[in-house]
Structure formats: C-alpha cells, structure tokens
Design brief:
Helices cover 57% and strands 2% of the residues. It comes from Cyanistes caeruleus (Eurasian blue tit). Keywords: Endoplasmic reticulum, Lipid metabolism, Membrane, NADP, Oxidoreductase, Transmembrane, Transmembrane helix. This is Polyprenal reductase.
C-alpha cells in the first residue's frame, strides 16, 4: 500500500484492523474512487471544451466566471494553438484516468491497508482541481462563435509521443507488481510484498512513480513548454512521487536483505 494518491504499491503505517480502532480511516481500495471521479469530471470538462471549440457553443457560466477571476478572459496572439493544446491535454488527462481506473479494477491487487480520510478527501479534490487547471489555461471568450482551426505543432507531437511511452511503461510496471500477488492462472494468492523485477524495475524501485512524473511532464510539453501554471503541477507531482518512492525504497532495503544495491529510488541513475 502507499500513502499518496497516485499509485498502489508502497507500504504504509496503517493496517486494515485499524479501521475499527480509528474512525477516520478508509480502505485502500477506495483509491479507485479517485479515478471514477476523474473520469466523470474530466470527461465533462472535455465535452464542454469540445463543444465550445468545434460547435461554437459557450462554456458554462461558472467556468467563464472562474476564468474571469483568474484573468484568463483575454485573447492571445496564438489563440488557436493555445486552445488546441488545452483540448489535447484535457483529452490526455481523461485517457490517463480511464487507464488508471481500468488498472484499479482489473489489474492491480490492493493490500489490506487503509488510508486516512483526509488523504482520501485530498485525493478527490486533486483530481477535480487538475482538470480545472487545464481548462483555466484557455481564454474564455472562446472564439466568439468561430470554430477552432486545428494547428498541430512540434511540441504536440513530442508531448503525445512521450505520454504514450511513459504510459506503456507505467502499465507494464503496474502489471509486474500485480503479478507478484497472482498465480500463473491470474488468481490472487498473496497480499504480501515481494521484490519486483523487469522493465524499469531493473533501474529504480518505483518506476511507476517515475512514469507518472513523465506523464505530467509530457502534458507540460504539449501545452507549449512555457506554461508556468502546469509546471507548478509538475513540481507538486515530483515531490509527491519522490517522497513516496523514497519511503518505498527504504521499505525494500529494510525488509529484503538481497535487494539489488544498484537500484535508485525514483529516477534512474540519479535518485
């Protein structure tokens, strides 16, 4: 189990028996709720933005009010590129949430651990806020009835390719973790922790955390690299995942005497 809201492999200090003793704990399996909320919420935002960009409809009033409060209601010189970048990133974010939800339902094997209710609430709020952050990167006077002229730029191509590459590796690593607790027939036979091998696990203890960071970096690139707001999101993900990786790395080293000494915690060859 882990103590952050992104992935599902790091040991934590709570166990399932604590639920009865401490009323503010909830099952680790509730991580799935984060992705349910993310799929629904970001899907809704994606539909709103798509209809505004391609059908010339207005964004909902509350979204326009939010943009106005954040000073995002003015036109920019490269408006078509900005709008398409935001639409593309919102699509990538939604696809990421769909994949993670599918992995929670059909791939991952959750331990019997629990998380604090405050972590749970923060996780729900995070996935609502991150999609709203993407939408707030676009001026709200959405085209004045004009439809979006799609302009694919070099950073869109690089960002999407990096997103696909990181997503594939993250899925492979999560499958490796899940298979440690399954038999060859796919039946869950254990909830204990074992040392994973294969793919990026040969270099770091938590490659799925590293892949999560790369996914957010790929979205920053897709937004045009210069978007300061999204880079703040990336920095948050960096510290969040790095902390989880360090704790997980220390757990492996403490509990497995033969744990590979060349493995780093988070970033290959670096950290």
């Amino acid at each position: 189990m882990e103590c952050t809201h992104h992935q599902t492999s790091m040991p934590c200090s709570y166990s399932s028996k604590d639920i009865n003793e401490k009323p503010f704990l909830c099952s680790h399996r509730w991580f799935t709720h984060f992705y349910v909320v993310s799929v629904l919420w970001n899907g809704f935002l994606l539909i709103c933005l798509f209809r505004a960009e391609f059908l010339g409809e207005s964004l909902p009033l509350w979204i326009r009010d939010m943009h106005h409060a954040l000073g995002k209601d003015s036109q920019s010189k490269d408006m078509d590129s900005e709008h398409f970048s935001a639409l593309l990133v919102l699509l990538l974010l939604w696809l990421h949430s769909c994949r993670r939800l599918a992995e929670c339902l059909w791939t991952s094997v959750f331990s019997s651990g629990v998380i604090h209710i405050m972590q749970y609430c923060f996780g729900l709020g995070y996935y609502i806020a991150v999609g709203s952050t993407v939408l707030c990167q676009v001026p709200t006077n959405v085209r004045n009835g004009k439809r979006l002229s799609v302009q694919i730029c070099w950073y869109h191509i690089i960002g999407v390719m990096m997103y696909i590459w990181a997503s594939l590796h993250q899925h492979r690593c999560l499958a490796i973790l899940a298979n440690l607790r399954k038999s060859r027939s796919g039946k869950v036979v254990s909830l204990s922790h074992s040392v994973p091998f294969g793919d990026w696990f040969e270099s770091v203890s938590c490659p799925h955390y590293f892949a999560e960071l790369l996914i957010y970096v790929s979205m920053a690139i897709t937004l045009g690299i210069h978007n300061v707001t999204w880079w703040c999101v990336v920095i948050y993900v960096l510290f969040n995942q790095a902390l989880a990786a360090v704790l997980c790395h220390e757990f492996y080293q403490k509990n497995f005497s033969s744990y590979p000494k060349h493995r780093k915690a988070f970033i290959p060859l670096v950290f």
